[in-house]
Every structure is written in C-alpha cells, then in structure tokens.
Give the backbone structure.
Amino acid sequence: MKKENIKLLENGKRSDGRNLDEIRNINIELGIIPIANGSAKFSFGNTVAIAAVYGARSLQPKFLQEDEKAVVRVRYNMAPFSTDTRKNPGIDRRSIELSKVLRDAIENSIFLEEYPRAVIDCYAEVISSDGSTRITSLNAISLALALAGISMKDLIVGLTAGKIEDKIVVDLNQLEDNYGSADISFGYLFATDEIVLLQMDGELKKEEFLYALSLLKEKAKVVYEKQKEALRNYLEKEKYD
Amino acid sequence: MKKENIKLLENGKRSDGRNLDEIRNINIELGIIPIANGSAKFSFGNTVAIAAVYGARSLQPKFLQEDEKAVVRVRYNMAPFSTDTRKNPGIDRRSIELSKVLRDAIENSIFLEEYPRAVIDCYAEVISSDGSTRITSLNAISLALALAGISMKDLIVGLTAGKIEDKIVVDLNQLEDNYGSADISFGYLFATDEIVLLQMDGELKKEEFLYALSLLKEKAKVVYEKQKEALRNYLEKEKYD
Amino acid sequence: MKKENIKLLENGKRSDGRNLDEIRNINIELGIIPIANGSAKFSFGNTVAIAAVYGARSLQPKFLQEDEKAVVRVRYNMAPFSTDTRKNPGIDRRSIELSKVLRDAIENSIFLEEYPRAVIDCYAEVISSDGSTRITSLNAISLALALAGISMKDLIVGLTAGKIEDKIVVDLNQLEDNYGSADISFGYLFATDEIVLLQMDGELKKEEFLYALSLLKEKAKVVYEKQKEALRNYLEKEKYD
Amino acid sequence: MIDERIVLQLLKEGKRLDNRSFLEYRKIEIEKDIIPKAEGSASVKLGNTLVIAGVKVELAQPFPDTPNEGILVVNAEFPPIAHPTFEPGPPNEYAIELARLVDRIIRESKMIELDKLFIEDGKVYGIFVDIHIISNDGNLLDASTLASIAALHSTKIPKYENNSLIRNEFIGNLPVRYKPTYVTIGKINDSYILDLTYDEEQVINDLIAFGIRDDEKIVAVQKLRGKFKFNEIEKLLDLAIDKSKEIRKYL
Amino acid sequence: MIDERIVLQLLKEGKRLDNRSFLEYRKIEIEKDIIPKAEGSASVKLGNTLVIAGVKVELAQPFPDTPNEGILVVNAEFPPIAHPTFEPGPPNEYAIELARLVDRIIRESKMIELDKLFIEDGKVYGIFVDIHIISNDGNLLDASTLASIAALHSTKIPKYENNSLIRNEFIGNLPVRYKPTYVTIGKINDSYILDLTYDEEQVINDLIAFGIRDDEKIVAVQKLRGKFKFNEIEKLLDLAIDKSKEIRKYL
Amino acid sequence: MIDERIVLQLLKEGKRLDNRSFLEYRKIEIEKDIIPKAEGSASVKLGNTLVIAGVKVELAQPFPDTPNEGILVVNAEFPPIAHPTFEPGPPNEYAIELARLVDRIIRESKMIELDKLFIEDGKVYGIFVDIHIISNDGNLLDASTLASIAALHSTKIPKYENNSLIRNEFIGNLPVRYKPTYVTIGKINDSYILDLTYDEEQVINDLIAFGIRDDEKIVAVQKLRGKFKFNEIEKLLDLAIDKSKEIRKYL
C-alpha cells in the first residue's frame, strides 16, 4: 500500500536519523571468497553486496577474445531473500541494465590494454538490499579488482544522492529511493577527476543537479578513504599471517 | 465476444464495400531500409508488412554452410501493436510455422545454387494487421529480394482467397478471415506456373477449392503488375537521382 | 482432495490385491524402435517406460569428447498424458534430477573405457505412470543397452520398496508412493554385488532400512530373470527370422 | 541408414526399397485405450513408424471470444528417442508445424462438438491432445493424425464435482463426429508417391498434404515442401480424397 | 559500410561524412496515427534511422502499491530487419537499456496522468508502448523517445464496458502533459557532437544522454559509454537543455 | 588449484592436504539473522565454503491436494561468484539436485508443521528457502542443509492483514521441530571420508548422502556418485547417524 504520509525529513533529520550529507555506516570485509582472485563485501548500512573478480584469465572460446585489450564481463544479481517481497531468482531486465552500466564504469577504470586476449569477470551479489544496491556493488567490485591486482587508474568510488522534500541528501536508503523526488547514482575516479557512472531519475532543476554532483564528489572522499583503509589493513594483516 | 450476427456480405458487397473478386488498395514503398541489400513495404489496405533482405552474404559459423547452394533464413514477426489486443513480443508457434512456410516458398523461387556457402536472410515485420499478413509479407519479401539482386525464377506473387456466405472472394480482411468458412493462402510464380505456397483451412468442396485457385491465379496478376510497376518506378527514379 | 482414510493394507493385502513382497506383472517388449541401436518397453503393471539407446557413436562437437572413455547422456521424460493431471511437456526440475541419477547408475554399469571419444545416448519415455517410473525406466534402459551391444558389467536391475502402515513392501504403485511413509529406489548389479542407484525419502529406522534393502535384493532377482528371459527369447526369435 | 543415392535411383525407376507400389501404404495397426491415465489414447504403427497420441481432459477457462465452448490444445513432441537426428529441447519448427496441422484438421473439420463442453460460467472442459513420436520412419503427419483421431474417438469425459474432475468416473464419451485424415503426397518425376519412409523423405523434394473429411470436404491443405504446377492440384486432390477413404477404414 | 578510420579522421578534423555541423540534427520527420489497430502510434525518421512506436491500451491489474493508478509498460525490439548486425532473439542489453530509458523519461517526467486511468477496484488501463526499430542508422535513443512521446500524444482511450474494451469507441485522449525529450551527446577531442549516425557511434567513446522536460527540468540522465570530466557536466547540461527545445518543436 | 594427482596420492596414503583426519569436519561457523529483510537467514562457513540461506515468507495459494497446509519451496543458486567454474545461467543439474535434496530432508523429516500455516480458504503462508552459494570449497550439501535448517529455526511469521503481509510485525516463530542434517560420505580405497574439499571431490569416485533426524530416523538417502557394495550400507549408516549428532550441535 502507498505510504501516504511518509515523512522523509523531520527537524532536519532523515528517517533513519542521519543528517542530509551523512553516509550510513560503511562496513568492508576483504578476501571472503578465497578461491577468487579478489573478493570483498561492502555495506552501506543494511545494503550489503559481495563481489568477486576472476581473472585476468584467458578468454575461451577464442573468437570472443579481443587482440588489444581485455574483455570485461559483469553480472549484478540480487539474492531472492534480499528484498521485502521475495525476488524471483535469476537475471531480470533491471539486472541486465545495471550489469551493463557497471561494466561500462569498470571498463573505463581499468588499463584494459594491459590484458590482451584476457577476460576479467566481475560478479556482484546483493545479499541485503536497503537502497543504493548498484553503487554498493560498484564499491565492492572496486575492492575486489584491487585485490585481484588488476591495473586500474584508481579505485572506483561510488555514492548516491537524491532529493527529499526539497533537500539534496547523499546515500539514499530504500525509503528515500522509493518516495524521494530524484536519485542519482555516481561513480568517480579521484585520480583522473572522471565520472565513470552517472544515472539520474526524478525531477531536478539544473542548479539542484549541479549542487548534488558537488556534494557527491565531496562525500565520495569518505568512501574513498574507507576503501583505502580497508586495503591497507588487509595487506598489513596478510604480511604478518 | 462472438459477433453473433456478423454480415460478411450485403447486396453482393463485402463488409468493406468491395466486390467479391476485388483486391484492397495495394501500396508499395521500396528501399525504406537503406542499409539492407533490399527492402520494401507492402500493403493490402490496412495490412502492412515491411521486409528486408540481407545477403547473399557469407554464412558464419562455417559448419552451417551448404557447399552447393545458399541457405535461406526467414523470420516472420508481428509487431506488438499491430493487432487488436496487444501481441506479446517475440516469436510464437504461429510465427515459427509461418516463417517455415514462407522460407519454403522463397527457397523454391530462388536459384539457390548460384550462392554456394552463402546465406540469404529475409525478414518480414507486420506492423499493421488486417488479415492476409503472411501473404502481405511474402509480397514484401519478393520485392526486397528483387532489389537485393537475388537471382529468382520470377517475382513471387501472393494472394489470399476464402469463402464467405457461400461465395468465393479474394484478399481476405481480418473480419472475413475470422468469420468466413474457409481461407486459402497462395504464393505463385507466373514464369514457371508453379505454386510455391499453399495453405488452406476451413471447409470446401473440391469444386469450390478449384474455383478459388483459378480466381487466385487470375487476380494474382494484379499483384504481379503492381510489383513490377513499383520496381520500374523505383529503378527509374534511382537512375535520375 | 486429500484421501483422508486411504487404506493401503487390508488383511495383509495391498490396495491392488498384492502381497507385501509381490511385484506387479512385468511386461517386456524388445526392439520396438528399429532405428535405434537398442530399444525396449518395460512395464511394472500400469507403469510403462520405453527406452532407446543410440550409440556408442562419435561425440560431436569434438570438445565434448573424453579421451579415455565414453560420455553417457541420459534423458528421462514423462509424456504429458502419462499422469492423472496432464503434465506440461518438457523437462522439469524433477526430470533433470532423475536423468542425472539414472545417468550415474548407467555410467557405473558400463565399461566406459571401451568407448573413448564416443557418446552413448540413453532415452527413456514414461508413457504411462503408476509409481516407480524412474526404476521402470532404468530396467528399460538396461535392456536397450544390452540390445545395443554395449559392454556392461551386468544387466542393471531396478526395483522400489517402501513402507505402508508399518510394513515394508516392494514395487510401489502411485497410491503407495503418495500415501506411504517411505520409498526407496534401488538399482543393482548382481554380477558385482554393487548398488548403482539408491534414493530414499520418508521416515525409516535403521533396521527397517536394512530390511528393505535385503528384500529389494531378494526380489530384484525376479526382475533380473525377466530381463534375461526376454533377451533370450528375442535373440532366439531373431535367429530364426 | 541406406545411401540416399540408391533410394533415389530406385524411385526414379518406379521402385521402392520395401517393394511397395507408389500408392500403397505400409501396414496400418491402430490400438486404442493403451494409456490407463489418459481419458483417450491410441497408438499407430505405420511400418516402423510408431506414434502415440494421448488425450487428457482438464478443467479450463474458455477463450474470451467463445465463452460457451470447450477448448482444444494440440501439442507434438519429437523426443530424441524416436530418431538418431532428433535432439532434446523445445519443439522445433517441424514439430510445431505438425502440431498445428493436426490442430487445424481437428478444428476445421468440426469433429469435436466444442459447444457441448461447457460446464459453467468461466469453466469448460479442455481437450489436450499430445502426440508423442516414439519411432520415426517417415510420414509422421498421416500417422499422428490417425493416432489423434483414434484417441479422440476413444475419449471419455470425467465427472465434474466440487470444482474438480473425478478421474475415475465418467459422464460419457467426448462428443465427436467425423474422422478426418491427412493424405500426404510426394512427387518424383511426375509420379505421385504415398506414405514415404524416412529414407524416401530425404530424397523427395515436393510434398503436399490434404486433410479430408468423411464427406469428402477438404478441410486443410498444406504444401509442405517444394512446388507444384498449377494444373496438377486437381489430380492431387482426387488422389487424396480417394486414399482418405481407404485409411479412414482403419479408424 | 564506411571504413571506421575515415569517419574518425574526419571527425578529428571537425567534419562529418554527411557535411552536418557537430551540433546539427539530421532532418526529423514525424508521422502520427500510422497504425490503424494501435490506440496511438508514430513513426520517426532521423535521416536513415526509422523507428515506429505503437501504443496499445489494455485492461490491466494495478500494481499493489498504486491500486488507483494505470500502469505503463515500455518495450523495445531490435528486430534483425533493422541492421545487418542485429540478431533474432530476445532483447539484448542495448534494447533493454533503451526501453528502460524511455520508460524512465515517460515515468519520471510525469507526462501521463496515471491516476486518471483507474477504472474500478483491481482494474485499470494499461498503457503499453512498443518501440520497433525498423532501420538503424544511429541515435536510436533520441529517435525512439520522439516516436514514443508522439505516439502517446496521439493515443485515445477505448471505452470500457462489460469487463472488456470496445476497440472502436473512445472516451477521449490519453491524459498527457509535457513532451520530454532525450538529447544524446557524444564527445570527441573535447568537442561535443549530436545525433550520431551508426558509423559515428562506432568511433565515439564517450556518450551521455539527458532527458529534459518542457520546463527545463532534468528528469533522466544516463552516461551511456565512456567517461566525462567532473567539470564538464554543466556545459553538457546547457547544451542538452538548449537542444531539447529545438527537437521538441517537431512533436 | 592443486594438482589432482597429489590430492589423490595423499588420500591413498590416508592423508589430507589440510591435515584433517578422514572423519573430521572442518571448523563449522554458523551465524543467524544476517539478512535484515529476510524472515529467517543464516550463513554457514565450512572452512573456505560459505553458504547463505534466506527464508522469505510470502502469501501463497495452497496445493490443491493439501488445501489447509502452507507450502514449502526450496531453490538453490550457484552464482558464478562462488567458483571459477560456475557459469551464469539457470541452475544446472547439480544445483537442482542440491535444492531437491534439501527440500526432501525438510519435507520428509516433517520439521515444519505446515498445517499451522493456514490463513484462510485459498490462502496460506508460503515458506521460500533460497540457498545462495557464495564460496565453493566443497561439501555444499552438508553446508547448505545446515544453513537452511538454521535459517528456518530463526524464521518469524509476519502478520497478515487486509490481504497482505505486514513486513515489520510478527505473530511468532515459524513452527519447527527437529534439526535434520545430511552427512555426505566419500569412499576411497575402502576408507570413508567426510566433509570433502573441492579438490578432494574431484578425485573421489563414490559419494553418498544420508539425511538423519534428531531421533536417528533416516529421512533421506541419495547415492550421489559411483557405486557401493551391498554389504557396506550398514557401516555407512552407522557412520552417518553418529556424525549427524556431532554436527547437529552447531545448530
């Protein structure tokens, strides 16, 4: 049933108590799939994605290979139990679009030409969903790629923003995604100042859109630092293991 | 709901005002898909099909090739918006049968042996449907094949006939197809006097069937002339472009 | 509707009048698909399966071949009209599991290493179903394999058992399968004393399970003799044809 | 399998490998009521071709444009058991064409009185004819049609009670009339040939099927392959009508 | 097809094969009401690109969370007729992305007043927009959106009576407002380029689309390919807003 | 990955790469309630194998033959994330067998009191168990069963009101009893071996699984691979019953 009188903001606080520019708790676990070349679990609050990277490895059958660069394959999938109502297993139209959008972001962050005739397989499984699932997956894949030793321009940093009751906020949860008036998905490389993922729907004036982007870039720094910290700790630990 | 008291004939005129042996308005547009080797739009009244031919071109993968003749592939499809109730997108069982029936007609009209190891792809999209859609597609493909320069015994000429209230008529519209008591689809090569497509369902005495065939052959001449005229005009125009 | 008061046993007799350890009428017809390398129809009462074996023949495409042994492919399928309520045509999840279980039994009964790079295709169609369909299929395939001249450790002998109202019985019919409290499917090679198929569901104490197995082995002898007799008669007849 | 060139050479000389004359069918053996759980069933043997048709009667929703009539669904499976070239998977174009042709001859001949299959508003009997090819040695269309028509003529209607069908109680036979049959005719060197074996089908280029009802009405036609001269249709029709009487006797 | 290297070389020199300037669209030709059985329809020609959009209005169940609103379904087919590289089969990721982008611009711009499409409890009008690509010479997103918006603006609502729709009687036009349009922008050597042909699409690495409503609100954005510098988004937005006004005039 | 010949050689000498004894399980770690939106959930780590099971409770129609009982659906996905050899696509025969075996042990052990899941005529609670393999280092059946049973024991039933489920209000726990577990046993050189790693699974030819309930009743058996001598079944059963007690303690 439509939640008629949903209050998304009260006294400047969001439904889950956050400030407008506050990101949910970020949680990172690395190396959770030992047999993968790289793997990571990334959470924004209750949204949790697990990613693994297999490769770079030789692409078979051969006619799929590209002579001068790697092929990147991406699968974004939501577990049936991750959503309010059970999601039918398998890849639906939304997953196909998001897999394409993620692939495109990843292809523009990797030095593909270093891996001729190879494939880099990136898989993301959303096991718990509370908004921003594609961007959570993007952060998980970024870390998995780094652990797999894939040569990248920079870590890929993802964050969402949106508009709720005339305010621009970052890191949308499910409620804000469903009942807010706009949402933006944003993937960014700090090293090159490049936007590699950008999607928006809703209704925004040009000024609002540009303000949201500037807020995204500013707050993405937090995600960037978390990614780097997690990698540092993991490699530190590895050293002494 | 079943139209209980459908009158298909009144004072010797059909529901759309035609005489028994009268073909609907034929409309032809050629070359509407510039990137195809040949393409055509063909209409009988409100039934409109667009066809394109790609090829003869080399067939890949190689194990599908035939050493001594071309492979012909045909896809007949109805656009979801072409029918009264929206048709689900994609190829259903009816489309599979009709694609096979059309392919068989085309294979028997082409000098296949002139194109060893090649494929000739023929695609027909019905964008508006008011009866006789397979035969409209056949005429469109015939013209597309001619423009693609495929070597044929003759243009393939298609026409339908049927029985409504004890009369044999040609070029059935949807209403006549649904509520008449028999319908025949007929594809014919004048040059060789060969029937290359023949389907019938309903209930006909042998004499009625043979009379319908003779009427089909007679009236197919009209379609034949329209095809030739359209090609002449198109090539004329091409010359001065 | 749930049959609330189903009596599966009355005065020591089963619903179809059999004794506890009595197998239904076994009917065997051999060679009914002349173009196959081997074929057989096998029935336990109203449960009827037809099997054919094609091969050993060269496996294409080549990358599927195994260098040191045959590949065995098995398809178990139920005809839509074989069941109480019409079964949708095509392979469902149950058929996929049972095909795998049957394949596994067959692979362990054939001298696979005698057929490098070959495939042995085994197909079973259940045309009438009254319980024990997978085991009926196994017996039919055993005979088809023998007629195809495939080198086997022994004929594969299949039989089911179950528990109804505290008694262990053999060769379950549909009613006993649906309303009994346990059922076992059993595939056995007498020559090597090996169990090659074993599945059970229900609720059994260890002692009951072991007793059921001993009964299965004892009564499987009956099936074994029927298989051998049918083959003898068939080959005899062949000789004089 | 026999070398195609031999089969073709023989045919050109007017001979068949099994010594039949060109217009002779193989021995037709029909057995009814062979599937206990089906409401109707029949097997047809045509030489080495073996087809089983089963009829299941189920509760169904009527089609919106015929709310007072039962529905008919015909399906054909070519399981890989029946021939070394058949492959597992969904029906291919030949299986679909076969099912649609059998559907058409049943429907267009009006052999089932569908209006007698109404139960109550929104509920009718659904007649599901499933054709299962067991052994393919050619002429599947004629054999499948014989099997389907025989199965329909053996079909009983289960009792309807409390929103469901009682499987072992019947209220009568399926209301059927007519025994329509297909006669498939091949052409080679201007000769016509009937009841082709699998090997013969590989070398015959021109093939047409006529569906004929007991009253000699033509109820379905399908050119299956190749081409025919305009003027030979009458001869073909005469042959089909003639032969349909002969094979109808087996039903 | 033209050699990609020539196309690329020309573009780097600021030239296009068809002599257009970088910010110039090909001739836009829109025709409405071209499909008699569709409740709304339009074709759009953009040079050699040809797209047909048809709108069917059907009875539908509302979504559980919006029980009083009509539903919208957008689907796109890339039939093999439209390009030598299109293959038969279910929609691939590009067809799906296209359909979802058109869906999004229609939905997010609120151009259809879905709340006026309620019929009765559990029953609403369903608006099915089907995009059929007939000839692909590039810029399918802009062309498909123009065709869909034009088709929706030509759509009539059939009368509802006795649980079904009367196909030839209408109660009025589909309640629509706004004419949102996508402007797809490519980038090459720091220049922006619009309305790419198929050949140009093969050599342009960076591509982004902005969906703009009549009131200059941004209602949808999708980076389609490549990457963009953070600071250039404003310039891109200004260009998209500007051009959207120009192409909206054709609607 | 390790060379298969080394793994095999070690096993033949009675040794395992990870130094476990043949009858020793890897460390079992079970965590419950890990998925906020699932009504029940658990993860199971068995060494490097990681499986998540989630239980969703949905409104469902009962099966016609058990109109007063809730329904159970078990599904398993082997997403390509879990192993370099897993491929995207619908479940293959191993995923289907796994799901059906877990379904069977839940159903046949009667651990869920399905008759308590009736809501009203035609409406029952549906229990959907989804097994998601995250990391595959062998013994997926034992691990998936542990995860599923743990998830079911943590499942809460949402409140039913106005034809729908209120997701954040619960009327109690899923009515469950028993904790059935599978013990999968491999055989090599007449020795039995438990909890196989992925590498060990590649070289072990004979594999069988026994599903045992708390009261030592056997509720499911599946020979998974290979063959067993008739007389060794009793020994296998004793081992399975024994070990089932040990691993049940982790639940």
Summary: The helical segments of chain E are 4-12, 93-108, 140-153, 198-203, 233-248. Residues 212 and 218 of chain E are 5 Å apart (CA to CA). Chain E has a mean pLDDT of 96. The longest strand of chain E covers residues 123-135.
